[in-house]
TrEMBL record:
The gene is gltX. Catalyzes the attachment of glutamate to tRNA(Glu) in a two-step reaction: glutamate is first activated by ATP to form Glu-AMP and then transferred to the acceptor end of tRNA(Glu). Monomer. This is Glutamate--tRNA ligase. It is found in: Cytoplasm. Its EC number is 6.1.1.17. It comes from Clostridium carboxidivorans P7. Gene3D superfamilies: 1.10.10.350, HUPs (3.40.50.620). ATP binds at K254. Residues 3-320 form the Glutamyl/glutaminyl-tRNA synthetase class Ib catalytic domain. Keywords: Aminoacyl-tRNA synthetase, ATP-binding, Cytoplasm, Ligase, Nucleotide-binding, Protein biosynthesis.
Length: 484
């Protein structure tokens, strides 16, 4: 069997949509599963859509995610150039071959005429289709128009009777009536090819064996097949991936403010978790296992198990999966990732290495961290009601009693260590003959001002230090006195 070659062919739009990244991942996995080649091709023929910095985003995403390409604009390869805008001569040459064969033709119709056709179609409630007006131009007429510099496009010449079929490995055999096939534009008036033409020429010239892309291209694929046939080229294997939905009715789309890869990274998702999650968006590994490293994905991925039905992008599940990846990080690595988030809300010189072990098992997404640790910087606004806890059996009175008793003992405590703080609290528990919670709930509440915190009373008191602990306990005493 020939070596598998897949490609990722992004347009430089300025962001990496989750669906595009999934296409890249699937194309990578299909190739690597069989030791094949994964190629990067930049599809920049829509010059109006050019976005500054867009290429960096593409390169950077592939680098960060480890989806390493074997050929591409930055590293070269045997079938370059790998940027479509550098291949315009190639497309023109191939379009001319089609004209020779009668499979394509020049079209000189003006914008106004096209507009009229569109309006008529709309009035008749039919799909706008070019009426082959220019197909009947004689050779002389064409020469004359070309010579006088009238703008033109080159169109595919599709039959209007019969049917065209194509095979998709996911969606099966798809057959359309040729009457539905528009004579799509292959070369635009600016001399650039359309995606519709360039993808066929490039996939062929670059030896692509499996074309992996979103299902939005499914409806155009019969027209691509006709191009392959017109050239006499082998049709590649098509692997169209199901749409990714935000909910049952809406597609996930950057335009709707939905997350791109960069957004997810900025929120503090880990790239491995993102890759793992999106691998499952439309692909069923079979079995219970859901957490896959990239190597395991390469090993397990079988594109035949890609689903037809739309995949729902489930935030909750992604968060959960990210949390699982965070838990598995070595503590030092988690600490390194968490540190910038601490520094967003903590200016004090605290021992941050003591905070990380408290957080690592609780954080799902790194951007939750500031809200979880802000109380280390300053005691948040809170009401005395926070001291009242039914299960712990704490109320204003016994909380006040605990804080008043513990304050002088903390004042006298030295050195200020976790063990010593614990001892003071446990001694008081024993002395009062109460359950731990009667002492620990008010102390933790006083030092944190929060209902739930990473770490308990001892850890927090140790981290904020003696002076701040005493100050916060005094604040608690005042609050409880006022509430009695
Ligand atoms: N340039 C197209 C896009 O970004 C790629 C489609 C394809 O993979 O063929 O949507």
């Amino acid at each position: 069997m020939a070596k598998i070659r897949t490609r990722f062919a992004p347009s430089p739009t300025g962001y990496m949509h989750v669906g595009n990244l999934r296409t890249a991942l699937y194309a990578y996995l299909i190739a690597k599963h069989e030791n094949g080649d994964f190629i990067l091709r930049i599809e920049d023929t829509d010059q109006e859509r050019f976005v500054e910095g867009a290429l960096d985003i593409i390169y950077n995403t592939l680098k960060v995610t480890g989806l390493k390409h074997d050929e591409g604009p930055d590293i070269g390869g045997p079938v370059g150039p790998y940027v479509q805008s550098e291949r315009t001569n190639i497309y023109i040459e191939y379009a001319k071959q089609l004209i020779e064969k009668g499979e394509a033709y020049y079209c000189f119709c003006s914008k106004e005429r096209m507009e009229t056709l569109r309006a008529e179609a709309e009035a008749n409630n039919t799909a706008a289709k070019y009426d082959k007006h220019c197909l009947s131009l004689s050779k002389e007429e064409i020469e004359e128009k070309l010579a006088s510099g009238i703008p033109y496009v080159i169109r595919q010449n599709n039959p209007s009777t019969g049917t065209t079929s194509f095979e998709d490995d996911i969606y099966g055999t798809i057959t359309v009536d040729n009457s539905e096939l528009d004579d799509m534009i292959l070369i635009k008036s600016d001399g650039f090819p359309t995606y519709n033409f360039a993808n066929v020429v490039d996939d062929h010239l670059m030896g692509i064996t499996h074309v992996v892309r979103g299902s939005e291209y499914l409806s155009s694929s019969p027209k691509y097949n006709r191009l392959y046939e017109a050239f006499g080229w082998d049709v590649p294997i098509y692997v169209h991936c199901p749409p990714i939905m935000k909910d049952t009715h809406h597609k996930l789309s950057k335009r709707n403010g939905d997350a791109s890869f960069e957004d997810l990274m900025a929120k503090g998702y880990l790239k491995d978790a993102i890759l793992n999650y999106i691998a499952l968006l439309g692909w069923n590994p079979g079995g219970e296992k859901e957490i896959f490293t990239i190597d395991e994905l390469v090993e397990t991925f079988n594109y035949k198990n890609i689903n037809k039905s739309p995949a729902i992008f489930d935030d909750v599940k992604l968060r959960w999966m990210n949390g699982e990846y965070i838990k598995k990080l070595p503590l030092e690595e988690f600490h390194k990732l968490a540190l910038p988030y601490y520094k967003k809300v903590i200016t004090k010189d605290l021992d941050f290495t003591k905070i990380s072990p408290l957080l690592q098992t609780r954080v799902e997404v790194l951007n939750e961290i500031p809200d979880m640790v802000d109380f280390f910087e300053a005691l948040p606004e809170h009401s005395a009601e926070l001291y009242v806890h039914k299960k712990m059996k704490t109320n204003y009175k016994n909380s006040l009693d605990v804080l008043e008793k513990i304050l002088p003992r903390f004042e006298a405590l030295t050195p200020w260590t976790f063990e010593n703080i614990e001892k003071i609290c446990m001694d008081l528990v024993a002395e009062l003959g109460v359950k731990n919670g009667i002492v620990l709930w008010p102390v933790r509440t006083a030092v944190s001002g929060k209902k739930s915190t990473p770490g308990g009373a001892y850890e927090i008191a140790e981290i904020i230090g003696k002076e701040e602990t005493l100050r916060r306990i005094q604040v608690g005493i005042e609050k409880l006195k006022a509430a009695q």
